[in-house]
Design brief:
Structural class: alpha+beta
Oligomer: single chain
Number of domains: 2
CATH topology of the largest domain: Beta-lactamase
Distance between the termini: 33 Å
Number of strands: 16
CATH superfamily of the largest domain: DD-peptidase/beta-lactamase superfamily
Radius of gyration: 20 Å
Amino acid sequence: MSGNELDAVLRRQMPRRSLLKAALAAPLALTTPSLAAIAVPPAPVSDGLATAAPSALGIDAKSLHDVLAGVQEASTNIHSVLVLRHGQLVAELYRSGADRSIYSLWASQRPFTPADLHDMRSVSKSVVGLLYGILLDRGKVPEIDRSVASLFPEYAALQDTSRRAILVRHLLTMTAGLEWTEPSPVRRVSSTDETGLAFRPCAYSYVFQRDVVASPGTQFTYSGGLTAVLAEIMERATKRPLRQLAEENLFGPLGIADWQWVGDVYGRPLAAAGLRLRPRDLAKLGAMMLARGEWQGRRVVPADWIAQSIAPGIATAVGGYGFQWWSMTTRWKDKDLAAAAAIGNGGQRLFLVPDLDLAVVTTAGDYGDPAIAAPLNAILHSVVSTVSA
């Protein structure tokens, strides 16, 4: 029996509350985070994100409070949990805990509140994927079946037949077939090629000089390098830097004003891992995704692009992968429902369950520790179980 099959069996056999307690039982942080108040529902804040009582949106308020209480009482290094349904925030929890920035070697204890930015790490990849879809819809970037090598003709040594077969589509789905080593939800390694992106003037030359180890479109290999090349294509096509593209086409329309995109040694944003957002603003992104690309009556991302992004385009060891977004399943009332996620190192998550119009946001500080995935998945499954209708 595979790990995924075993997990499915356990989830069917254990009550959601028990599953959450079991997943949170093992301490993952070196220090115990201090407790904070649970807001069910949250107090209204003038940030454009509506709030509502869970019971008004078909969620059992007591059960949801119990889920957050389980997180609050645990020794896991989870910094926030937010729950959103039908475009409205129904619960949030913030805790202090150990954290470190992307360039830091050591963690320090710090508080987290609704006003604090948090590292998103590889959630950045999913944002880059959305930006490409927005710009493609406006005719500002190459079609996804365009050869990537053809967009960088100055690199003559990288114009061989095998590399010219790699399309923009393969960057989006991480199926370029190029050799690459990087930790991910499907691979545990002690080194990463992603670090080198911060020191190279051109992501394309750094990534595409690697050996071709599979035919494009046939093998999933998680690669922040491919995301960096996507960003490079957008910048070259529009003659706009990535931060400006994000502000004008995504964050501005969503009313996200307080954000950062950490840069490399040249000052350019680390496309694959450098984004910092407030959890409430990540929840806005989720609300827009669940509304098929609309936010407060305005089209932000094409609906068909969102559908392709969260569809399981290629199978991985932990589910499917679309256009820079992961796909999986959760269980509700004895039925398997499709779910999708933006996943970042350390415990950053934006879970989406479209059939329930439900989003769950988490932030955490267990960078480099894949064990954080179990309690986060348990939170998702437990929140789903609180939905009554």
